[in-house]
Write a structure and sequence with these properties.
Layout lengths: L15 H4 L2 H36 L3
Length: 60
């Protein structure tokens, strides 16, 4: 037999689905996509810069 809940004022816990509306989820996906593109661009530029600096340091 399940035990009854204690406390007179029991607040309902918010589920994840209550917080994330379709509009919020769409905006979050767009933001995460922008962050992913920006991070990828920074990594590529850093690698290209490292290759360029390594190539300039190699002397004859």
């Amino acid at each position: 037999m399940p035990m009854p809940r204690r406390g007179r004022f029991r607040s309902r816990r918010r589920r994840f689905a209550d917080v994330v509306t379709p509009v919020f989820a769409r905006e979050l996906r767009g933001t995460l996509l922008h962050v992913q593109w920006a991070a990828s661009a920074v990594i590529v530029l850093a690698l290209l810069g490292a290759v360029l600096v390594a190539g300039l340091r190699v002397g004859p």
